[in-house]
Amino acid sequence: MKLNIDDILLSRRVRQNHALEHATITILSRMIPDLSVSARSFANGFIVFGDVDLTLLRQATDEALHRLQAGEAELAIHPNCGTNIVVGVSLVTLGTLLGMASSHTRVRAASAAASSIAGLMAARPLGEYVQRHFTTLPDLKGVRVTDISRRKFFGLTTVEVRTVQE
Fold first, then answer.
1. Up-side HSE of residue 43: CA atoms within 13 Å toward CB?
2. C-alpha–C-alpha distance, residues 78 and 132, integer Å
3. Closest by CA position to 77, among listed 120, 40, 124, 118
4. Number of neighbouring beta carbons within 10 Å of residue 90
């Protein structure tokens, strides 16, 4: 999969594919309860890092696409999304930096700890907000899956799911 500037800037297509990726992984996880994969979205699809059955992945992708197109927008939000991790780390870092601004050692340590805990507690709901409004787009009208293919590279299996917008 070729990287382009749209992949970096969270274009409409990246956000759509991110929504489809989340919905696909959610549905696939119900089919395979002990599923252990990660994924990354791009402008022309997404890559699943892990060895998954292509037939099951195709079924999950087709169902995800159909359900998102039918209006099940919540499938676009995933609790284990990297967005939640980035938001959490950012909040904890910010909280720690703000806590360290005090000139009193005890206040500094207590403020840093309290701010970090608050950041951790806010990470998931705020991360899901960021997913909902900035990193995913469940409006998949005209999107279709064109190809699903497996690749092995140095013992790592990836599956590429390609999409187009018509």
1. 11
2. 10
3. 124
4. 14
Distance CA 84, CA 111 (A): 23
Given phi > 0 = left and psi -120 to 50 = alpha, else beta, which region is 20?
alpha
Give the position of tokens 């701010």: 115
Q: What is the DSSP letter of 25?
A: H
For 152, list phi and psi in degrees, rounded to 5: -120, 135
Token match 């990660």: residue? 38
Q: What is the CATH number of domain 5-77+136-165?
A: 3.30.980.10
- Taking only the tens place, the pLDDT of each residue in 35-56 is 999 999 999 999 999 999 999 9
Average model confidence (pLDDT) across the chain? 90
What is residue 29's three-state secondary structure?
A: helix
